[in-house]
Write the structure tokens for this entry.
Amino acid sequence: MIVLKYQKRDEARFISHIDLLRHISRILLRAEIPVKRSNGFNPHALVFFSPPLALGVTSMAEYLTIDTDMPAEEVLTRFNASTPNGLHAICAYGCEKNPNLQARVSAADYIYPYPYREIDFSRVVIEYQKKGETVKEDVSSKIFSARDEDGMLCLRLATGGVNLRPDRLLATLDGIYGIKGSVTDIIKTAQYVAADGKFVDVDDILS
Amino acid sequence: MASFASEFEKLLPEVEKPGRYSGGEWNTPDMSSPARGDMCFCFPDLYEIGMSNLGVQILYDIVNRAEGFRAERCFAPALDMASKLRERGIPLLSIETKKPVKDFTVVGFSIGFELLYTNVLYMMDLAGITFRAEDRKEDDAIVIAGGPCSVNPEPFAPFFDAIVCGEGEDADLELLRRVTEGREKGLTRAAILESIADIEGVYVPSLKREGYRVKKAVVKDFENAPYISKPLVPTVESVHDRATLELYRGCASGCRFCQAGFWYRPIRERSAKRCASLAKDMLKSTGFGELSLCSLSTSDYTELEALEDELSPYCRERGITMALPSLRISSFKPDMAKDSRKSSLTFAPEAGTQRLRDVINKNVSEEEIDKISVAFEAGYDSIKLYFMMGLPTETDEDIAGIAQICRRLKQLYQEKRHKRGLNISVSCAVFIPKPCTPFQWEEQISFEEMKRRQFYLRGLLREIKGVSFSWHGAETSVLEAALARGDRRLSYVIEDAFRAGACFDGWSEHFKWDVWQAAFEGRGLTMQEFTRARALDEELPWDFIDVGVDKKYLARERELAYKGVTTKNCREGCNGCGALKMGRCTIL
């Protein structure tokens, strides 16, 4: 098993998660990385993703697990030679078995396009459209922490099974700051797995 | 220019499927060096549809390979994006460099379907391009059209400075070259148009006088004609999201209703050797998991078996599925279905009785239809059948024949599989008489008659368990027929309809029948004037285009149709249609 850590930015921000699955299988075919296939009635390539990224958000830390016997370094080089602009792998980790990031990741850091300031997140109600209806939700329990990242606001949000889409906080933050932020200016910087009541960076688990 | 790009990017998160507009597809050529002349290929439908168009990809590739020239793309934006562009005052931009479409040297529309005419205006409107060629200013882009609708360009001719009739492989680049040179030399617009008028296939509507003729452009050396070895890989899933290889151009079957079958003559094949090498190049460069071997009638490809033998192991090793659309019923083999994951097969008998199939020269016999049972043996439980309604000489008996075929197939299924449960889906389009076919003089049945026959067939099929029935809207069929055989007067109708809100007419949820009716009335016209029967000696709006196939040949075929006499497949010997003078028929 190889886990690639990759960036999704520029034009690639606008590739939806569903389309991304198709893109990845094409990249692997172009790169001639031999991927093991499932044994079912409709065999499919054994590749696994970290939780879906909201459309339009830049990420510096997405993960792709590939079931292959090819050495990590070679996978990395071949992969990068076959990706469209905006998809780029930064490093490759070898591991024994599938780290199952889709299920285990529980938080991620997002840098927002606002200068850092202390904000009271003890009660945050967001509104969004779901199947044509307006939904109100108190998401304060899904905002784990806020910190200053080079002067910008950085939030750690629930990601995965319990999830807070980073773009859905924009309207609230716009209200607080009195400026309009764009989803395309949000940058995801890290993903975390919960262990012993702490958040551990996925990179630390893999290396 | 740069300001539009950043303004435009801000819109992306606000619209549905932003990947339609973001660009950056794999295999996009390098656009960083300056070009002497550039061309924007505009496709008047959504990204997902346009990216599946083989013609656009071939022409795009040819221009981008030529030194000093560049091609970019633009698709019709969805309505949500269009209203945002209007709101922010951003003109329509190309996908690759986000350059305003109207600033290209040449703007080229690919028009494949009559119901896209209003979408051409929709794009011109968003781009800020003046609709009528005669109203354009000296420095405005040269706006051209091409694609299958160039068979009869008259209804939209006034919107274009030039129209490429036929195949654009040679004509498009030559046209771009001459327009660019004309601009470099400071020629007037009129002089530039004159300078392109003698390119084979190029029709300049402003130069049309009594006796004006245009010869359809034809690729002579199809074997070595450029083909996309590196197709663009769509960002958003397109309708045909796969590698497509064109095996040959033209068709040997001669079905009398089929425009493509006559328009793309002479028949030109590519060798299996070249096809296989092109297919592998495409698969390698794209990573597509599916390869489609495409043509008007794939079973008729001389070297099909050799090609399959060559490609099958290659595809199997890589888990790539191979699809063979447009197969004849008689050539279905159980092993074709073996590797395929599809659960349904599609066949097109087109008509319900042998008599009517002979009239239209669809050479499918009852015995051949019975051969569908081979598919039942191979495990298929579901089949799709395509028919047409309103064909010349059709009676209720022919329509009842459709139900008869369904019953027969159910019986065969039961014999082979010893159970019931076959699913048949019957799809029935309305016959539309098209230019450049033996039926170009025919009348289209009336709106009321379409409704009556559809109702009649629906009643018959309802009595058979497991059959579902879908049909084409009578409204769109009448409009398509009127536009297909129209003349220049219709350009005003199209313009009025667009201004009154018609666009995306091919999408049933957007189609506005009342707007179109009012547009015809407003110009003192009716659709029936254009769907009526034409006299054999009547001058037809598309007669000035030399398509190779003689008008006399079409008339003779029509006569044979009325006698119920079939014409043999071109492979069994030349029928003398006249297309030979345009280039060698490679099957002879």
The CA atoms of residues 257 and 439 of chain B lie 6 Å apart. Chain B touches chain A at residues 9-10, 12-13, 17-19, 21-26, 28, 233, 235-237, 241, 283-289, 318-319, 341 (CB under 8 Å). The first strand of chain B starts at residue 37 and ends at 43.
